[in-house]
From TrEMBL:
UniProt KW Oxidoreductase keyword: yes
Residues of the Aldehyde dehydrogenase domain: 10-451
Gene3D superfamilies: Aldehyde Dehydrogenase, Chain A, domain 1, Aldehyde Dehydrogenase, Chain A, domain 2
Protein name, as recorded: Aldehyde dehydrogenase
Length: 477
């Protein structure tokens, strides 16, 4: 990259309450006007956003590099491409999604024509986290525009170069009464959350998800909450270990472990633990180098987002090792460089803090097991995760893991790629989220499903008084 990374983040400008209120008011009339917008009009806006992703691709690379040394290939894969493919999918399918869906009459409504009509919710708020700031702001924006709404966007303040670039792009692309973006931290979020939006689409941590839902409750605003948590992983005794190590290390160390659906911890069958750990170490060394020095210089390994999080993750590591955990590889940290080595941990004691907090960084606990039922019971004792992964060649084990647990999504013999499938719903369950994103699911998240009934002839006459003997007989149950 032509830009050079300097750890430590710049501050973002903060929108004022008056400015936010003014734009929110301006969007009122526009939201009503957009109710009758056609598929073509919405597609034209989505195309503008899609084209801008390509025009600004280089600048997105540079901003992400400045923010946390994110490798450009990972920016393409996880920021540019997902928005472009979400946009292309919507442009292709929007007419079909918007079409009212006719429903069959039931025994009580014979003679009535009925359908579900998708109407825009109105004024929507989209709040994104820092880890895929562009993707998780502009991806939902595609669905929001597809459904015919206005939008106010609030990207995370923790990747300030990306936040500034996103603000510039939105200003260029849309009039503020259709789509506006406000930069800022919690204080800006809090101002926004006080407003009576028609829908809030929030991506972030479960803790802040609760704040968002409580604020939405004040206005009975509907919410989509895309949250996080600890995503468990199982590698059984029949798994292809080389494949498991290769795919798992990729899913874990892309974005340096700062991915909502990254494997958080691994249960591996005790008979395969050492062989699996060796395979993982081989992959880490191949991809990022052997020593901390080599890994720090690697162009393929993003940094931790800031010093606060580096300290947090390093404290989890220190706490685990002080309680007796063993470092299988890695283990070094340079806090002022926002750097922590890809680290595999063994012998983690149950009371280590790393067992109860979403790691969201480059540490990976590996835990041996002998009884799959006990693993499933342990997973079921925790809040429902956003993702659960299993590597196995035993169909019975795969089905058992799939059917006896609950998770937002699952990959079998892979990880993270469930996110990339535009025809699958992407979302969590309870603590890991409410509602879904992507494709038609995203369109529906931003739409109200309106029930419409149209009479074709006057069969309904039977309902009205006087209730003669004949009518009463007809209504007899
Ligand atoms: P976060 O919850 O701290 O912040 C998310 C957004 O909320 C930011 O824009 C932030 O400014 C705002 N915010 C922070 N505190 C707030 C408050 N008290 N009131 C109102 N708004 C507030 O999350 P983060 O650190 O940016 O991202 C990491 C979390 O997001 C992890 O838990 C991760 O698993 C989750 N995540 C989930 C998904 C998903 O699709 N489910 C994707 C990426 C990240």
């Amino acid at each position: 990259s032509v830009v050079s990374y300097l750890p430590g983040s710049a501050a973002v400008p903060s929108a004022t309450a008056a400015e936010i209120q003014r734009v929110f008011e301006r969007q009122r009339e526009t939201a009503i006007r957009l109710r009758t917008s056609t598929a073509q009009e919405r597609i034209a806006k989505i195309r503008r956003l899609c084209d801008a992703m390509m025009t600004y691709r280089q600048q997105i690379h540079e901003a992400a590099y400045l923010d946390f040394k994110k490798p450009p290939a990972e920016v393409d894969l996880a920021e540019v491409l997902p928005v472009v493919s979400e946009a292309k999918h919507a442009m292709r399918a929007l007419k079909k999604w918007m079409k009212p869906k006719g429903v069959w009459p039931t025994s009580l409504t014979i003679g009535l024509k009925s359908w579900v009509q998708y109407e825009p919710k109105g004024r929507c708020l989209i709040v994104s986290p820092w880890n895929y700031n562009v993707n998780l702001c502009f991806g939902p924006l595609v669905s929001c525009i597809a459904a015919g709404n206005t939008a106010i966007l609030k990207p995370s303040e923790m990747t300030p170069h990306l936040s500034a670039l996103m603000a510039k792009m939105i200003k260029e692309l849309f009039p503020e009464d259709e789509v506006a973006l406000f930069e800022g931290d919690v204080s800006v979020s809090t101002e926004l959350l006080a407003l009576p939006f028609d829908h809030i689409f929030f991506t972030g941590s479960p803790a802040v998800g609760k704040v968002v839902m409580a604020a939405a409750a004040k206005h009975l605003t509907s919410v989509t909450l895309e949250l996080g948590g600890k995503s468990p992983t199982i590698i059984d005794e029949t798994a292809d270990l080389a494949l498991a190590a290769r795919t798992l290390m990729w899913g874990k160390y892309t974005n340096n472990g700062q991915t909502c659906i990254a494997p958080d911890y691994v249960y591996v069958h005790a008979s395969k633990k050492d062989a699996f750990a060796q395979e993982c170490i081989k992959v880490i060394e191949e991809c990022y180098g052997k020593s901390a020095k080599e890994q720090m210089a690697s162009p393929y390994l993003a940094r931790v987002v800031n010093q606060r999080h580096t300290k947090r993750i390093n404290a989890l590591l220190t706490d685990a090792t002080q309680r007796g955990a063993r470092v299988l590889c890695g283990g070094e940290a340079v806090e002022n460089e926002c750097f922590i080595q890809p680290t595999l941990l063994d012998d983690i004691p149950a009371d280590a803090k790393i067992q109860s907090e979403e790691i969201f960084g480059p540490l990976l606990p590996i835990m041996p097991y002998t009884d799959l039922d006990a693993v499933i019971a342990a997973i079921n004792a925790e809040p429902k995760p956003l993702a659960l992964y299993i590597w196995s060649r035993n169909e019975a084990n795969i089905q058992k893991a799939l059917k006896s647990t609950s998770a937002g999504g699952t990959c079998i013999n892979h990880c993270v790629v469930q996110y990339a499938h535009g025809n699958l719903p992407f979302g969590g369950v309870n603590n890991s989220g409410i509602g879904n994103a992507h494709g038609e699911y995203g369109f529906r998240a931003f739409s109200h499903e309106r029930a419409v009934v149209r009479t074709r002839f006057m069969m309904a006459r039977t309902l009205f008084p006087p209730y003669t003997k004949f009518k009463s007989k007809m209504l007899d149950i």
